[in-house]
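Researcher: I've been going back and forth with a colleague about how Flavin reductase might be arranged in three dimensions. Neither of us has a model we trust, so I'd like an independent prediction. The organism is Pasteurella dagmatis ATCC 43325, in case that matters for your notes. Sequence below.
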Amino acid sequence: MKVALVLGSISQKSMTHKIAQFMVEQFPEDIQYDVVQIQDLPLYTQDLDSITVPAYERVREQLKTADAVLIVTPEHNRSVPAALKNLLDIGSRPSGQNVWAGKKVAVATASPGSYGGINSGLHTRQILQALGSNVLSAEVYLSQAHTALSEEGKVINERTAGFLGKFAANFVTFIK
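Model: Here is an independent structure prediction for Flavin reductase. You can compare it with whatever you and your colleague have in mind.
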């Protein structure tokens, strides 16, 4: 099985990248993952629907051929980061070619704040449900995520590791 891994932050220093890495390391060997690169995507506009945009085609193909998608994202200004929203829009267009429809998707958020990116998670889930995705009911809103990571970016908090491991196992069960 193949999972498309979407990192909602385009920052190389993002905590969500480290959290996502920990989660995919929990996958069994028969599940492979492929990171969907979103930092080079032009902003979506319907004006581009009638032409081929190579970056759009690349991510649409990654999403289309994946058995499932794992989105791990921070929260920006109490909502979905712009780069992630752009990907969601690109994958849903042009009309009639929505790659999100029927796709199994899980959403996890992480934040250094007290709310764990809950608004971003809820907004992302709302968008995915509107696009017809099959969204995993289990949720991760990891608050004060920086306290769970070592200087090298490894998950060191045992409780957090257990929680993320359980979420990864639920995701694997969901997609199989």
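Researcher: What would you highlight for our discussion?
Model: I'd start with this: The chain has a mean pLDDT of 96. After that, consider the following. Residues 2-175 form a domain with the Rossmann fold fold (CATH 3.40.50.360).
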